[in-house]
Amino acid sequence: MLVRTQCRGREVTGLQVGAKNVRRYFPKHIDAIELQLDHLNIQCDLTPEFWQGQAEINDPRLCEWLDFKVSHMMPVRTPIPLAMVPSGKNSFRLRPASEHGRSKLRPSEISAA
Prior knowledge:
Number of strands: 7
Number of domains: 1
Strand order of the largest sheet: 4-3-7-6-1-2-5
CATH class: Mainly Beta
Structural class: alpha+beta
Helix content: 10-25%
Oligomer: single chain
CATH topology: At1g16640 B3 domain
Radius of gyration: 13 Å
Shape: globular
Strand content: 35-45%
């Protein structure tokens, strides 16, 4: 699934998953997922708002990793598309969208995330 970084000003604040992705890839009302970030595995809690149209994953460790690994891909802090690939029960691997077999994304694909 395609997701994108969420930024406020110059700060990366998390991932915007999108309501369609929530319905398709997340079992109803789980309260946490595991994210594989390179060789780092973290558990991220999902807030009640995640299920009510605010499909965002916010975790300080995720934000630090995104800031360190991904933010250099764009000179300005604009949302960066990423691939979130299912890798087990409630587990996903996060990687650049180009590694997911998409080298160029259409604007409609990014906004769908």
